[in-house]
Amino acid sequence: MTQVFIVGGAGKVGRLLSQHLNKRGHRALALYRNPDQTEELKALGATPVLGSLLEFDVEGLAALMAGSDVVVFSAGAGGKGGPEMTNAIDGLGLELAVMAAQKAGIRRFLLVSAFPESFRGKQVSETFENYMAVKKLADVHLAESDLDWVILRPGTLLESPGTGRVRTGLAIPYDEVPREDVAATLLEIIERPAVNRVIIELTQGDTPVGESVQRLARP
To answer: Any catalytic annotation for residue 32?
Structure first.
């Protein structure tokens, strides 16, 4: 059994990941900040951990992470609260989680990031441009750390049911992908420690998730 600490455990991907982990016999600790979501997270098979990235210091977050084998950072402001909130959650929040994982002695760290081509060619707001810039800097921060990291960059997220088939690679054409398949891909990465220190782009595709992820494992 692997214990996974999910930062952003109440988010859509985080919830789906908790379900996948529970079904495979792993333990999911889901960090969330709204007390009203406690029972919902328990029903998904997660162990709810109440707290906010906006209020933690490194020591406090590390204490909650202690004993976990993997940290998955899937938190995001989601465009709410403007650039300030994006900077605080997607940017500084990621940096805080990295430091906390290091302090807690957790080596493996997975980050759900953003596909570089997201909405390119379309008119987007300054808030979205800031979001993409912050996500890139978060990638850089994690990639320059001494952790065994994996950065997952999914395409446009869909609400449709997962297909269990995806396309992954170091660089692939931009496309969409169901959130459920993003969570399934995270599970397969968690179960394959040989997949590490790599940036993976992810879209819908024709290859079974496990097989697609396995191709990215280091010899």
So the answer is: no
Q: Tokens 């406090």 sit at which residue?
A: 60
pLDDT tens for each residue of the chain, 219 residues long: 999 999 999 999 999 999 999 999 999 999 999 999 999 999 999 999 999 999 999 999 999 999 999 999 999 877 677 888 989 999 999 999 999 999 999 999 999 999 886 555 555 566 778 888 899 999 999 999 999 999 999 999 999 999 999 999 999 999 999 999 999 999 999 999 999 999 999 999 999 999 999 999 988
Cβ neighbours for 211, distance < 8 A, ≥ 6 positions apart: none
Distances (CA, A) of 161 to 113, 130, 164, 182: 21, 30, 9, 11
Strand partners, 208: 165
Boundaries of every domain in the chain: 3-214
Count of beta carbons in the 10 Å neighbourhood of residue 126: 9
DSSP H helices, the chain, are 12-23, 38-43, 58-65, 82-86, 94-104, 126-143, 179-190, 209-214
Contacts of 123 (CB under 8 A, 6+ apart): none
CATH architecture of 3-214: 3-Layer(aba) Sandwich (3.40)
Q: Yes or no: say if 61 and 75 are a contact pair by the CB < 8 Å rule.
A: no
Catalytic residue among 56, 115, 131, 149: 131
